Amino acid sequence: MSKISFKPGNMLYPLPAVLVSAMDEEGNVNAFTVAWAGTVCTNPPMVSISVRPSRYSYDLIKKRGEFVINLTTQDLVYATDYCGVRSGRDEDKLAKLGLTQQPSKEIATPGIAQSPVNIECRVKDILELGSHHMFLAEVVNVQVDTAYMDEKKSFHLDRAKPIVYSHGGYFSLGKKLGTFGYSIAKKQETKRQREKRRRKPAGKPASRRK
Length: 210
Ligand SMILES: Cc1cc2nc3c(=O)[nH]c(=O)nc-3n(C[C@H](O)[C@H](O)[C@H](O)COP(=O)(O)O)c2cc1C
Description:
This protein starts with 17 loop residues before the first strand and ends in an 11-residue tail after the last helix. It has one domain: Pnp Oxidase, Chain A (Roll), CATH 2.30.110.10. By secondary structure, the protein is of the alpha+beta class. The longest helix has 9 residues, at 56-64. The strands form 3 sheets. Strands 2-1-5-8-9-4-3 form a 7-stranded antiparallel sheet. Strands 6-7 form a two-stranded antiparallel ribbon. The chain has a two-stranded antiparallel sheet with strand order 10-11. It has 4 helices and 11 strands. A hairpin with a 4-residue loop joins strand 3 and strand 4 (46-51). The radius of gyration is 23 Å and the shape is globular. Flavin mononucleotide binds at residues 17, 30, 32-36, 50-52, 55-57, 81, 84-89, 132, 165.
């Protein structure tokens, strides 16, 4: 295996590219794209987004102390890119893209209705790291689209066709390769294997390995 070193940089891919909505003092809603986003704590549920202070949305989030993370899908890939290359300083991106507001339950800032998951966040801390300032926020409510719930009320995010961002490109997800804990789960014997086992004549027990 031959490898070369890249200069230190961000190579943690793939990542979600989310649409973050923020609201100004007059109640105008803006959305911008964030890939530097992450889950940072389970209990209390906390997330982070890292934002350059030069972004129009930065002051909106700082002043209101809240934002919504809207997960993105194949249907939203154009909007995801557009919101990441155009500024709310110059235009109403939601109107331009035909995106509609989804009222939040716990905060004033609305989410985006077309997104399957809206994560309502209240800012707890701002870490001024360098080029980006990290908003550490508590998740105060999550809204999910019932279109992706089955009759047992299980939510199937994969049915919403989520996208990821990897090293400059947007990608859809491939096939499911396993589920949480599958590597240590007891394998279920198939009907065929069971019949084969039963057909086997009882032989001498295998000698113990030394
Ligand atoms: C895929 C993608 C990911 C991005 N991730 C971030 C990010 O994590 N943090 C950030 O500050 N800007 C990020 N940007 C850039 C902002 O989304 C972009 O500057 C946007 O125009 C800011 O919008 P605003 O001026 O309306 O706030 C990203 C852009 C794209 C296309």
